[in-house]
Specification:
Number of helices: 10
Order of helices and strands: HHHHHHHHHH
Distance between the termini: 87 Å
CATH architecture of the largest domain: Orthogonal Bundle
Number of strands: 0
Number of domains: 3
Helix content: 55-70%
Shape: elongated
Strand content: under 5%
Structural class: mainly alpha
CATH topology of the largest domain: Arc Repressor Mutant, subunit A
Largest sheet: none
Length: 172
């Protein structure tokens, strides 16, 4: 007689209790910063009960482990050289930052800073414009900066005179 195989028990995940949810959130925060919304979404994905989620979030706020304002400031500071205010605003909204906090955080990002960032991005990506006809360069560069979330007036200012400088540097 052959030995009968035992039926494998189906894996059942342990429920996300308060302790398990708390440990999970601390583990997440040890890896990188999160907004309150992102942490709630992570716990919801793990099927934690709404009461448990609220309890964990309340404790995080009491200990000041989650600060959406500090997160938004850090996020803008680290990406303001790569993206414009429109893109940053959209990304912060997606991360669950409130509209008032987004407005307050983007306030120091003035037009001059954005113009400088846009010019730096153009200079860094000049190779994309070298093989293009003169008439298409402007529109290609305009679209390039617009996709990165720079407002149209900032893009126009950044592009004014850029191609003259670009041609000079290309000749050297």
């Amino acid at each position: 007689m052959k030995a009968e195989k035992k039926a494998a028990k189906p894996y059942t995940a342990k429920p996300y209790t308060y302790e398990r949810s708390w440990n999970y959130v601390l583990w997440l925060l040890g890896r990188k910063a999160y907004t309150q919304k992102q942490l709630k979404d992570k716990l919801k994905q793990k099927d934690a009960e709404p009461e448990v989620i609220e309890r964990v979030m309340k404790r995080l706020n009491e200990l000041k482990f989650v600060d959406d304002k500090a997160y938004a400031e850090m996020y803008v500071r680290s990406r303001q050289h790569k993206k414009g205010s429109i893109a940053l605003k959209q990304e912060l909204f997606q991360k669950g930052i409130s509209e008032t906090l987004v407005t307050e955080t983007l306030e120091p990002l003035d037009q001059a800073k954005q113009k400088t960032a846009a010019k730096q991005i153009l200079e860094k990506n000049q190779w994309r414009l070298t093989k293009t006809e003169e008439k298409k360069r402007y529109s290609k560069a305009y679209a390039f900066l617009a996709r990165r979330g720079f407002p149209s007036d900032v893009v126009r200012e950044a592009l004014s005179g850029f191609f003259d400088e670009f041609e000079e540097s290309f000749k050297d």
